[in-house]
Amino acid sequence: MRLLKYAILGLLNRHSMTGYDITKEFNYELAEFWHAKHSQIYTELKKLYQEGLVTFDIEISGDILEKKSYTITEEGQDQLLHWLHKDEIMDKTAKDVFRMRMYFSNNLDLNSRIKLLESQKMQHTKRLNSLKKTAEQYPDLPPHDSDRFGDFIILESAIMREEMLLNWINKVIGYCEQSISNEVPNPRAKD
User: Fold this and answer.
1) What tens digit of pLDDT does each residue of 87-116 get?
2) How far apart are CA 139 and CA 122, in angstroms?
3) CA 54, CA 15: separation in Å to the nearest integer?
4) Spatial CA neighbour of 30 closest among 69, 4, 1
5) Closest by alpha carbon to 13, among 109, 146, 124?
6) pTM of the model
7) I want to staple 80 with a disulfide (CB 3.0 to 4.6 A). Which of 9, 11, 28, 31 is the partner?
8) Which strands make up the sheet holding 65-72, listed edge to edge?
């Protein structure tokens, strides 16, 4: 299934956009749950056009700069709505290099583990703060039938994810620190 197809159709169902505008949405609004490269987006737009799911108008800017503004067709809307009504079987857990590293961390000394965990803590704290800053645009729950509602609920999910990860990281740091404090010094160790 071409999931990028439905992401693009969903964006175009909101309003007409250029390929550049769509790329910006992937880098901002959709970044918490989906990603696509600039080249993938343009390749998919070409397929969608060939399938009759989108049309485009060429806008001339300046002497020679032209840009295509894409619009979803009625057939595109029908396919998007059909896809939206489908239930999903839960995917396998996403690959996570850091958690894989922690799974085998018994091969590291405790201080090395703590150093890695503190680095992750800093990164996730930064992301959480950024998400919370973004959430300030929503002092109230957006209407359930607005484009903003989807962004709000995904943003809320991303905040909860980061809070949960930070909770886990802090707990693991605590385990490591507790192990360090419980270690019995080796009397034969050389100073």
Assistant:
1) 888 888 788 899 999 999 999 999 999 999
2) 27
3) 12
4) 4
5) 146
6) 0.76
7) 9
8) 17-18, 65-72, 54-61
